[in-house]
């Protein structure tokens, strides 16, 4: 399983899944190939997401909002892991994707839904990216190449409980 192919899925594919894709591709250094998609893509990447990534020194070239339809059917690229990042706590519907890969859920409030001043919106994107980065770092520490699918699912589910402050969402 090298590189490990990971698809991040949300509804709009404009913020959380884009932040996740770019962060894993940057920090994964070829050990992982990250992709992202949405069930109802907005068609454009949120400019605050691009600003957050660029400010963190991560490449933003080639990022785009696209449909998950590209990842189903016989012509779809093979995947090892699919991670939904929608926020069930906000009653946001999470897409369901079928295939022979490990699935997990890393719920996260949508920073694109943040309101207020540009500074407040930037703060929401910064916080979301901090959580995503913490989770990505935990993923990078997993021996994904040697874990069984059941072990990998369990480890990924545990990562989904991590927040940016060192705690878990259940405790937050």
UniProtKB/TrEMBL annotation:
Its EC number is 1.20.4.4. Keywords: Arsenical resistance, Oxidoreductase. The keyword Magnesium does not apply. InterPro entries: Ptyr_pPase (IPR023485), Ptyr_pPase_sf (IPR036196). One of its GO terms (molecular function) is arsenate reductase (thioredoxin) activity. It comes from the Bacteria. Pfam families: LMWPc (PF01451). SMART domains: LMWPc. Residues 4-142 form the Phosphotyrosine protein phosphatase I domain. CDD domains: LMWP_ArsC. This is Arsenate reductase ArsC. It comes from Fulvimonas yonginensis. The lineage of its organism: Bacteria, Pseudomonadati, Pseudomonadota, Gammaproteobacteria, Lysobacterales.
């Amino acid at each position: 399983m090298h590189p490990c192919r990971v698809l991040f899925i949300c509804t709009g594919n404009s913020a959380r899944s884009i932040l996740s894709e770019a962060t894993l591709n940057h920090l994964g250094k070829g050990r992982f190939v990250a992709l992202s998609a949405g069930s109802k893509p907005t068609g454009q990447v949120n400019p605050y997401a691009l600003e957050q990534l660029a400010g963190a020194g991560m490449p933003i070239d080639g990022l785009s909002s696209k449909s998950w339809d590209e990842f189903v059917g016989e012509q779809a690229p093979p995947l090892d892991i699919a991670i939904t990042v929608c926020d069930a706590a906000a009653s946001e519907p999470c897409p369901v994707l079928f295939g022979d890969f490990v699935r997990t859920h890393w719920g996260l409030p949508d920073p694109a839904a943040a309101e207020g001043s540009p500074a407040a919106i930037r703060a929401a994107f910064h916080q979301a990216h901090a959580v995503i980065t913490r989770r990505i770092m935990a993923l990078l520490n997993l021996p994904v190449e040697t874990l069984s699918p059941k072990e990998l699912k369990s480890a990924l589910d545990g990562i989904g409980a991590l927040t940016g402050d060192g705690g878990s969402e259940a405790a937050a």
